[in-house]
Amino acid sequence: MKRNEPRSMRRAFTLIEILVVLAIIGILAAILFPVFGTVREKGRSAVCQSNLKQIGSAITMYTQDWDHYPRALDAADKYAPQIWAGWPDSAEIMAQTPLLPVVLDPYMKGNAVWGCPSDSGYDYDDIANVSIDARPTAYQKFGISYSYRTELMLRTLSDDRLPEPAETNVLNDANGGWHGSRTFGFGEGRRYNMLFADNHVKSVDYDHFRQAWAKPLPQ
Fold first, then answer.
1. pLDDT in tens, the chain (219 residues)
2. Which residues, including other chains, have CB under 8 Å from residue 209's CB and lie 6 or more apart?
3. List of residues 6+ apart from 205 with CB closer than 8 A
C-alpha cells in the first residue's frame, strides 16, 4: 500500500532536521579544516627541509672546490647593507658580492629549491630587525626564501675551521611566521627550518634560532 501512496503524502525533511544536519556539517568542518591545514603545512615544511638539504649539498661541493664557504649574500645583506655597517669595507663588499643562488648555480640542477613553499613574504628581517620589502614572496622578489650566515663568508671559513659544525647554522627560513606564528614581536610561536654546517636540517623554535645566530665563529 505504501508504494501506491501519492508523492505528496511521503514524509519530507522538516526545517529543524535540515538545520540540525547543517549544524553537524558546520561542526565537522570546523574540526577538520584546521587538521587539513596542519597536514598541508607539514607537507610544505618537509619540502622546505628537502630544499635546504639540496642547497647544503651544493654548498659542500663549493667548499670542496674553493676551501671556504660561498662568497655570496642573502637578500637582507644585499638590500639592507647597513646591517654590516661595523664591518671593514662592508659597503663595497655588499655592493660587489652576488646573491647566493647566483654563486651556487653551477652546483644546482634548478632554481626551484630556493623557494620555500610556505614563503608568504615578510616586512622585517627576523635576525637584524631591519625593514625589508619581501612581497609578495621573498622568492618572487629576490629569488631566495632563505637567510645565509654571511659571517661564514666574511671570515673566509671552511668546515674544518668550525669547532662545532652540528651547532653552526648556515641557512634558514627568512621568516619564522611561515611555519609558525605570523605575529611580529618577540618571536613566540615562530619556527624555522635550519641547515647546519654538518648538513643536517632541523625545525627549530625561536629561542634555538637566536642561539644558533649568536654562536661565535672562529676569527
1. 455 555 555 566 687 877 887 888 878 767 755 544 455 667 788 999 999 999 999 999 999 999 999 999 999 999 999 999 999 999 999 999 999 999 999 999 889 999 999 999 999 999 888 999 999 999 999 999 999 999 999 999 999 999 999 999 999 999 999 987 665 555 668 999 999 999 999 999 999 999 999 999 998
2. 126, 172, 176, 187, 190, 192, 194
3. 180, 190, 191
The predicted model scores a pTM of: 0.81
The candidate with the shortest Cα–Cα distance to 52, out of 182, 150, 153, 192, is 192
User: Distance (Å, rounded) from C-alpha 197 to C-alpha 163?
Assistant: 10
Strand partners, 194: 172, 202
135: its cell numbers:
612581497
How many angstroms separate the CA atoms of 169 and 194, rounded?
7
- Is the link from the previous residue into 88 a cis peptide, with omega within 30 of 0? no
> Measured between alpha carbons, how far is residue 157 from residues 7, 83, 94, 104, 206 in Å?
84, 20, 18, 17, 26
Residue 195's φ and ψ, nearest 5 degrees, are: -95, 125
- Sorted by where each begins, the domain ranges of the chain are 16-214
